[in-house]
Amino acid sequence: MKPPKHITYIKEYLKNVTDLFQSGKATEHSYRPAFKNLIENLIKDITITNEPKQQKCGAPDFLVQNKNKVPTAYIEAKDLKNNLLDGLEKGDNNNQLLRYVSRLDNVMTTNYIEFRFYQKTDDNKIKKLETIQIATITNNKIKPINDNFAPFINLLKNFCAYNGTTINTAEKLASLMALKAQTLKDAIYKALTCGDDCKNTNLYEQFTSFQKILIKDLDEASFADIYSQTITYGLFAARLHDKTPQSFSRYEAMELMPRTNPFLRHLFEYVGGANLDTEIIWIVDALVDIFRHANLSNILQDFGKKTATQDPMIHFYETFLHNYNPQLKKSRGVYYTPEPVVKFIIKACDDVLKKDFKISDGICDTSMVNIKFDDPKTQTKTTKQVHKVQILDPACGTGTFLCEVIKYIADIIKTTNSGGWHKYVDEDLIPRLNGFELLLAPYAMCHLKLQMLLKTTGYQKDDKNNNRFNVFLTNSLEPEHEYAGLSLFGAKWLSDESRAADRVKKDTPVMIVLGNPPYAGESSNKGKWIENLLDDYKKEPTGGKLQEKNSKWLNDDYVKFIKYSQNLIEKNGEGILAFINPHGFLDNPTFRGMRHNLLKTYDKIYIIDLHGNSKKKEVCPDGTKDQNVFDIMQGVSINIFIKKKRHGLARGHVPLSAKNKNLSNKLAKVFHFDLYGKRQAKYGFLLENDLTSIQFEKLKPQEPYYFFKPKDYQAQAEYDKGFVLTDLFPINSVGIVTARDNFTIHKTADEVKKTIQKFLKLDDEEAREHFKLGKDVRDWKISYAKKDLIKTGVDFKKITKISYRPFDNRWTYYSKKSKGFLCMPRGEVMSHFLKTENIGLVFKRGFVEKNASPCFVSANIIDFRSWSRPGMQGGDYVCPLYLYPDKESDGMFTEKSRKPNLDMKIVEKIADNLKLEFKAEKIQNYLSPIDILDYIYAVLHSPKYRKKYQEFLKIDFPRVPYPADKKTFWQCIEKGATLRKLHLMENIELTDIISPFKGDGDATVEKHTFIESKEKDGTGKVWINKNQYFDNVPSIAWNFFIGGYQPLQKWLKSRKDQDYELSNTDITHYQKIIYVLFETNKIMQQIDKIKIIEDK
Q1: Can you spell out the DSSP letters for 922-938?
Q2: CA 606 to chain CA mean position, Å
């Protein structure tokens, strides 16, 4: 009997494979033609392709497509002798197969006789479905397994008929999109960097055009990133508005791109047309298939409810970006604005136009003004008419604000003139709306969204009218470009886009700037033009350079956008700036120059502080929870800045007359309102109120800080009489930055030694993997660390103790070289703690933890976060009490060789007030450095003092009042000295321990749980595992704050996930911490009985 055809196909295939195998010359690629023929013979109505160009760019070896040319499966082939177990099952996270399965859903791997089938489950986990062999290799011979032929065919049919995973939630869709986008990004990057051949492709020509015209410092990796995002989300946006989803394709997506935007149209003509480069077409088609199988309208119908938006397309991008690259979202400050906030800002602009500028139609105004501009054709100044109320969002993203402006205006105009809406849009709306966006994906979405939104208002665009939206792909913070000499493919449509953006930047008389600018402390916008503009903010209100050691907070992107927008308003002579942005600028001392500059520029400033700052642990005035309107830690505020045209001033920067100079010295009126509460309550408030209904408090900002928040200036006057700690201790610095704590800091000196010895034996990449060091950064590289150790000679005497966290001293190898083993060792200060006896006062600028005292003490070098928690602004400062000669110590220093680190003018004032003589060392009945430190320590541990001056302690370095009299001074010194010794854990005896350690076990820290005692009020048990605990622990001690931490909780928590067994020394140390915290609380109450400040 003749065998079935499919059995014959398999036997013929195995014969071909056997012949190749026994030739001794076969490679993995030799078997591919036979394998391809087998699949095509066994499975009908499919196409299987093996494209070398695609493989170079990250594609699997074979791509399977159904009869509609939709990718359904992917095959990765290995050599016949390859053991397929050397892959996914071994848990190799860098394994190529793992990447394929996680991103491509349906993958088979084979060595041509064994076949393994993998799919991704609905919850995004990788599942191996089946493994089957159709032959074995024995004694160098291939032996068929006939019984497996039929099951193999069934598995193969199911594999090729795969119809995609079920996509039923927005989160899953975003995840799948992100995985495909990551694969596309990798493919684009490889297509651009595969050698000289890649430079002749359409894709590479586009890359060079982007680099030349739009983003000067663009590299291949960045281009791959923005291009993959744009294709992914552009397809998504097109699919969302496709009326024939079952036939959705790249070509349909191209057709949905607005014809009024040549830039976007051209880009998607490439994606949807025949010129799409072979290297990436396979993954773009896989993306299209996802959208074809997803019912987007059902998936997204409830999504807007979660995000306080009626526009899922825009806000879904945030979910996608979080899955695609959370760090990118953070670094670019991409956070989308809730509609209640947007609506409030637009209504505020409308109200201000009517009330302050007497423009009766407000934001709907159609009046015109004459402006002069440089005509590029005639190269002369020309006058033309433009609309007076021009609106700009300089970081428009997906168009949230611009869309809401359209809705707001449509509701008004269509009520009274619905028949004229079409004409109004063409003549008086589109010409007034302007937007700039740097990121390609949201730029594309913005255009699509504006187009779709206008359709929903009943506007039908005339095909003859190609008037485009004035939304441009450009960097607001860069000046105009030069275009001479551009002849690259695609350069015209790119340069046209940039030229059009520059015309708006240069000539449009912007009257309203609104939006939500990006927040990025580490700004990548460091161009000379914007930095020069920012110089105005980096001046003291009294003139001259801002006296700040570190003014980096002024380099945040949102600050640059405020200054950029301020420049536009000044250029126009009048206008409104309406932003929502971080509220740190309202009272951070570093921003005093900025606030003063804003006060001089504007006439009125309205501030609605929305709070929600979890970094500062903000709560409502009644102690209940306060939430942010965004999912971020930074608090935010809505800020409306109003500048009216001053008499005699035309548009532009016109010299001021003497009279106008006097006007310019007048400061703006500032109106402030605090809005605390739950997120939804804040949304409700903003929807129900406007500038006229809110009960603002009028502020009177005063020098030197010009705060934009209410302050008790009487209390400030008293507080300012004290001395600032950084003035008293002139030599000071923040703690060291290692950049790699887990590598450089250890619990024992021996661990440090072993780490360094191992590190030097490994090459750079081996060390990176072994110690999990991650990618090199600017100021810390593996090569730098090795060079530092080798060049200076490894000297284990340099292993020194470091105050890492409160009551948690550790060890590190201390080299003074910056960008060495340690990133920033702060040698000018930390050297005074090495091999010498010293004490350092620890504090920070702007201490926000109301439950803790604003200082601590250390006898060692300190970490950048030795005392304050992550999220608090800035690092921890340490001031050594004594300074030692700047030379290598031999351990023989004496007290006579050191000098106090004190400003003698302040010391003399203290001594004169107390009628005491100052001595550099401790002598009875004389004033000494340690006395001054102990006095400070007592004052700053006074709960009454902290409560009275809490607002000022949040802002700047602590101030301490000059001692009023000897009695108060010596009383403070007594308590301060006791606290200091407690916190340095000096002279604590075993008899002082109040919390015995109980239970049988190995003392492994598995948890840190406090359970209150039923027998004794105010105490409890601290359990470290199911059998062992510290007994009789005061709840006050358990909850006590030192700096930003609760030491009893932090100390155990940092050991919980390390299978750490407490030694007897550890147990005793923890018991001492309990005692120290309990005693600290008692002494603080005693300090409050000393009359340090007047009770008011």
Answers
A1: --TTSB-HHHHHHHHHH
A2: 28
**Three-state helix/strand/coil letters over 102-149:** HHHCEEEEECCCEEEEEEECCCCCEEEEEEEECEEEECCEEEECHHHH
Which residue, 926, 924, 920, 953, is CA-closest to 939? Answer: 953
Distance CA 93, CA 90 (A): 9
Whole-number CA gyration radius for the chain: 35
pLDDT at 654: 40
What residues have CB less than 8 Å from 827, skipping those under 6 apart?
Answer: 816, 817, 818
Instruction: For 1003-1066, list the strands marked E by DSSP.
Output: 1009-1012, 1019-1023, 1029-1034
- 582: number of CA atoms within 13 Å, CB side? 26
Residues paired with 671 in a beta bridge: 606, 698
Per the listing, tokens 């799919």 go with 119
Q: What is the pTM of this model?
A: 0.78
Do 1047 and 982 meet the contact criterion of CB atoms below 8 Å apart?
A: no
Give the contacts of 711 (CB within 8 A, at least 6 positions apart): 587, 951
Residue 289 and residue 164 in contact, taking contact as beta carbons nearer than 8 Å: yes
Provide the 10 A C-beta neighbour count for residue 210.
22
Angle at which helix 170-192 crosses helix 96-104, to 10 degrees, equals: 130
Sign of the alpha-carbon torsion through 987, 990, 993, 996: positive
- Looking at the chain, the number of H-run helices and the number of E-run strands are 40, 35
Cα–Cα distance between 633 and 584 in angstroms, integer? 12
* Cα dihedral sign, 1008-1009-1014-1020: positive
Q: What is the mean pLDDT of residues 883-911?
A: 79
pLDDT digits (tens, 9 = 90+) for 267-285: 888 888 777 877 788 788 8
Neighbours of 728 (CB within 10 A): 23
Exposure of 7 by Cβ count < 10 A (0-12 exposed, 13-18 middle, 19+ buried)?
A: middle
Query: What is the full DSSP assignment across 429-464?
Result: IGGGEEEEES-HHHHHHHHHHHHHHHHHTT----TT
Q: Which domains does the chain have, with CATH numbers?
A: 5-160 (3.90.1570), 170-331 (no CATH), 351-456+496-714 (3.40.50), 726-983 (no CATH), 990-1087 (no CATH)
Closest listed residue to residue 768, CA positions, set 805, 733, 743 = 743
How far CA 264 is from CA of 282, 319, 985, in Å, comes to: 22, 23, 67
- The torsion angles phi and psi of 338, rounded to 5 degrees, stand at -60, 145
* Residue 2 confidence (pLDDT) above 60: yes
In the numeric block, which tokens belong to residue 1058?
Answer: 């390390």
The three state secondary structure string of 684-719 is: HHHHHCCCCCCCCEEECCCCCCCCCCCCCHHHHHHH
Q: 531: how many CB neighbours lie within 10 A of its CB?
A: 15
> Can you tell me the distance from the alpha carbon of 869 to that of 876, in angstroms, rounded to the nearest whole number?
10
Measuring CA to CA, which residue among 608, 625, 589, 609 is closest to residue 873? 589
Cα–Cα distance measured from residue 572 to residue 559, given in angstroms and rounded to the nearest whole number: 20
pLDDT at 94: 41
994 with 1078: CB under 8 angstroms? yes
pLDDT of residue 341: 97
DSSP strand pairing (390-393 vs 106-110):
unpaired
Residue 488 has pLDDT above 60, yes or no: no
Cβ atoms of residues 609 and 583 within 8 Å: yes
Dig out the tokens for 157 from the structure. 């049919």
User: Do 1050 and 1087 touch, CB atoms closer than 8 A?
Assistant: no
Residue that the structure tokens 């499975």 belong to: 43
Q: List phi, psi (to 5°) of 808.
A: -135, 75
- pLDDT for residue 1037 is more than 90: yes
